[in-house]
Design goal:
Number of strands: 0
CATH architecture of one domain: Up-down Bundle
Largest sheet: none
CATH topology of one domain: Four Helix Bundle (Hemerythrin (Met), subunit A)
Helix content: over 70%
Shape: elongated
Radius of gyration: 39 Å
Order of helices and strands: HHHHH
Strand content: under 5%
Number of helices: 5
CATH class of one domain: Mainly Alpha
């Protein structure tokens, strides 16, 4: 028998091939377009975040600088007023004795110390809240020093305690107060020196 000739291969539809090529190209373009959009969104958000970090750092730095300066001013005023109490101690006591107010001398000293401590409270609290940790530690030392100062002057005015006529402890307290101030200044410089940077 004679072999039958192989049927001619069917010709593919060029129209279908072109259509699939167009579809694939469109899908690819869509995928890359979406990827580019997401990349743009990410970069944009990163830029906004970095800017927000810088602005917050600048704001915090300004708040800290103001708080530290206010605290130093309040501290210097308190030190000056405390020294004034000691320097006018005898004069105040004589005046109260002459006017029959001897029994109220202790209370008068306590009120004078309150007048020194009260203006310090808010500056101490604000600086402590703003930090950083080194400033917090310095502020706590200041607050503890004020308590020591109050205790000493209270005992000096209280007749039930022996009176330190030489004021032997006073120079020690003055030196401690100076150290507290220097510690705050050093901590404040460390907190304010670095410029705000993203991620910093």
């Amino acid at each position: 028998m004679r072999a039958l000739p192989n049927p001619a291969p069917e010709r593919q539809d060029d129209g279908m091939t072109d259509a699939w090529a167009a579809i694939v190209a469109a899908i690819a373009a869509g995928v890359f377009g979406i990827g580019g959009t997401f990349a743009g969104i990410y970069v944009g958000r990163r830029g906004v975040t970095d800017q927000a970090v810088v602005e917050h750092g600048q704001w915090l730095r300004g708040q800290r600088q103001e708080a530290y300066l206010l605290l130093l001013d309040a501290w210097d005023a308190a030190v000056r007023d405390a020294k004034g109490i000691v320097e006018t101690w005898d004069e105040r006591e004589r005046w109260m004795d002459d006017h029959g107010e001897t029994e109220n001398f202790h209370q008068a000293i306590a009120m004078a110390v309150d007048a020194i401590e009260t203006p310090l409270r808010k500056p101490l609290e604000r600086a402590h809240l703003l930090g950083p940790e080194a400033v917090e530690n310095a502020v706590e030392d200041m607050a503890n020093h004020v308590e020591e100062l109050r205790e000493y002057l209270d005992q000096q005015a209280d007749a039930s305690y022996p009176f330190d006529r030489q004021w032997a402890r006073w120079p020690v307290l003055e030196t401690a107060g100076q150290r507290c101030r220097m510690k705050l200044v050093a901590a404040a410089k460390g907190a304010l020196r670095p410029s705000p940077t993203p991620g910093g």
